[in-house]
Write a structure and sequence with these properties.
The chain is of the alpha/beta class. The protein has a single domain, classed as TIM Barrel. Helix content is 42%, strand content 15%. It has 11 helices and 8 strands. The chain has an 8-stranded parallel β-barrel, surrounded by 5 helices. It binds 1,3-dihydroxyacetonephosphate (13P). 1,3-dihydroxyacetonephosphate binds at residues 9, 95, 167, 172-173, 211-214, 232-236. Residues 9, 95, 167, 172-173, 211-214, 232-236 line the site of 1,3-dihydroxyacetonephosphate.
Length: 249
């Protein structure tokens, strides 16, 4: 059985005092709930603060990006070891906003996946199609390609630690979520792609989330789909009430 995982991707939101307020409020109300794995992905500046607040809880900490080099003259970048040092369990890699605004490619995504695994941080790899790609009937080929490229050169032993987030770009922050059955179909395709590379048994162990306008009102539909193992949530992870409702779907 795969344990569902719900992660809050805060994106570029929350100062340190705001992060404290959100996480301490949630920790006191969640009271150790653990049927679902819960992960907080604050901006770099709040990682240390959030880590302190999560001490003694079962909740995980994730970063939103990393650079693949160990250290050196790479102004503005953050290394895998630095994320390990601050206590990250997870790192989001290849979010569509990074692909769209910061020039990330399938090649850099693959480099980042390898770099995270090398220090024992679990990647949450994002894949997803644009509206134009969906309307042109390119979704399946695109998702298959993004998945295969992200996994190039990755050992089979690492696969169960990796999470994939299927996030159709047209559904992010737009209020237009994918139907649960469409999301389930694409996520099934991702699992098949991984099964072709690593075998069915390994692919069955890997968790695949849906992301894109997940809200308290629609999360149950996604979570009840057989292929969907959780959600990567943006907007609705930024408030105590809505995040609590998501966890108690
Ligand atoms: P929203 O939940 O705000 O649509 O964002 C989804 C997302 O991009 C999570 O990574």
């Amino acid at each position: 059985m795969r344990k569902p995982i719900i992660a809050g991707n805060w994106k570029m939101n929350k100062t340190i005092p705001e992060a404290k307020q959100l996480v301490s409020g949630l920790v006191s109300k969640l009271a150790g709930k653990s049927e679902v794995e819960i992960v907080f992905c604050p901006p770099f500046t709040a990682l240390s603060t959030v880590k302190d607040l999560l001490k003694g809880t079962p909740y995980g900490l994730g970063a939103q990006d990393l650079y693949w080099k160990e250290k050196g003259a790479f102004t503005g970048e953050v290394s895998p070891l630095m994320l390990k040092d601050v206590g990250c369990d997870y790192v989001i890699i290849g979010h569509s906003e990074r692909r769209q605004y910061f020039g990330e490619t399938d090649v850099t995504v693959n480099q980042k996946v390898k770099a995270a695994l090398a220090v024992g941080i679990k990647p949450i790899i994002c894949v997803g199609e644009t509206l134009a790609q969906r309307e042109a009937g390119e979704t399946d080929a695109l998702i298959k390609g993004q998945t295969e490229k992200a996994f190039e050169g990755i050992e089979v032993s690492a696969i169960p630690t990796i999470v994939i987030a299927y996030e159709p770009i047209w559904a992010i922050g737009t209020g237009k979520s994918s139907s649960a059955s469409d999301a389930n179909q694409v996520i099934g395709l991702i699992r098949n792609t991984v099964a072709k590379l690593y075998g069915k048994e390994t692919a069955e162990q890997m968790r695949i989330q849906y992301g894109g306008s997940v809200k308290p009102e629609n999360i149950k539909e996604y979570m009840s789909q057989p292929e969907i193992d959780g959600a990567l949530v943006g907007g609705a992870s930024l408030e105590i009430d809505s995040f609590l409702k998501l966890i108690h779907y």
